[in-house]
């Protein structure tokens, strides 16, 4: 068994994670692939297409990830492409547990079940992707490093706040992000 160790000496780090072996990243774009390799997305790694990066501790993110939080990034749909597998995506839609009352559509690979992105009626023209699906692991430490940690009131007590990131009791807004850059 080969274990991927990141020695931090290269610009990218794309270990074998899942079945696909064709992930990539450039200065402007990168790929995100499901576990079985059927679905692959191409997304921007900088603005204007890369809109936001955040950790979420809401009840939906806990449940949908089978974990204690989700690491996410928001991309303008006009900059998001399906390299393959768009026809293999299954959608689960609901609004009952979303704090805002907006409709949320979860887009999964129909074969392996990997959650690739969410689409909210409250964020028209945007998709919320999962950092864990990104093929170049280095991006999680650089261009996709979270700016905000939201719903911190429901963060597990044994998790500490992410250093240097805005802490929000609620879902953050575009205005919150803009205030970081003033």
UniProtKB/TrEMBL annotation:
Name the Gene3D superfamilies on file. Answer: glutathione-dependent formaldehyde- activating enzyme (gfa) (3.90.1590.10)
List each copy of the CENP-V/GFA domain by range: 30-148
**Keyword tags:** Lyase, Metal-binding, Zinc
**Family stated for the protein in its record:** Belongs to the Gfa family.
Pfam families found in the cross-reference section: GFA
Instruction: Determine the domain of life of the protein's source.
Output: Eukaryota
Citing just one GO molecular function, the answer is:
metal ion binding
Protein's name in the database: CENP-V/GFA domain-containing protein
Q: Which organism is it from?
A: Colletotrichum shisoi
Question: Which SUPFAM superfamilies does its entry note?
Answer: Mss4-like (SSF51316)
Renumbered to this chain, the signal peptide range is none
């Amino acid at each position: 068994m080969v274990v991927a160790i990141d020695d931090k000496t290269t610009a990218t780090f794309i270990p074998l994670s899942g079945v696909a072996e064709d992930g990539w990243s450039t200065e402007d774009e990168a790929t995100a692939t499901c576990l079985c390799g059927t679905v692959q997305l191409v997304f921007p790694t900088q603005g204007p297409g890369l809109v936001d990066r955040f950790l979420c501790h809401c009840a939906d993110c806990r449940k949908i990830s089978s974990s204690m939080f989700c690491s996410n990034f928001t991309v303008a749909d006009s900059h998001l492409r399906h390299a393959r597998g768009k026809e293999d995506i299954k959608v689960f839609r609901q609004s009952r547990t979303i704090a805002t009352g907006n409709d949320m559509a979860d887009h999964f690979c129909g074969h392996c079940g990997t959650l690739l992105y969410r689409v909210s009626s409250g964020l028209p023209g945007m998709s919320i992707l999962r950092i864990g699906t990104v093929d170049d692991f280095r991006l999680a430490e650089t261009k996709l490093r979270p700016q905000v940690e939201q719903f911190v009131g429901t963060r597990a007590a044994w998790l500490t706040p992410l250093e240097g990131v805005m802490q929000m009791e609620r879902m953050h807004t575009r205005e919150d992000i803009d205030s970081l850059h003033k």
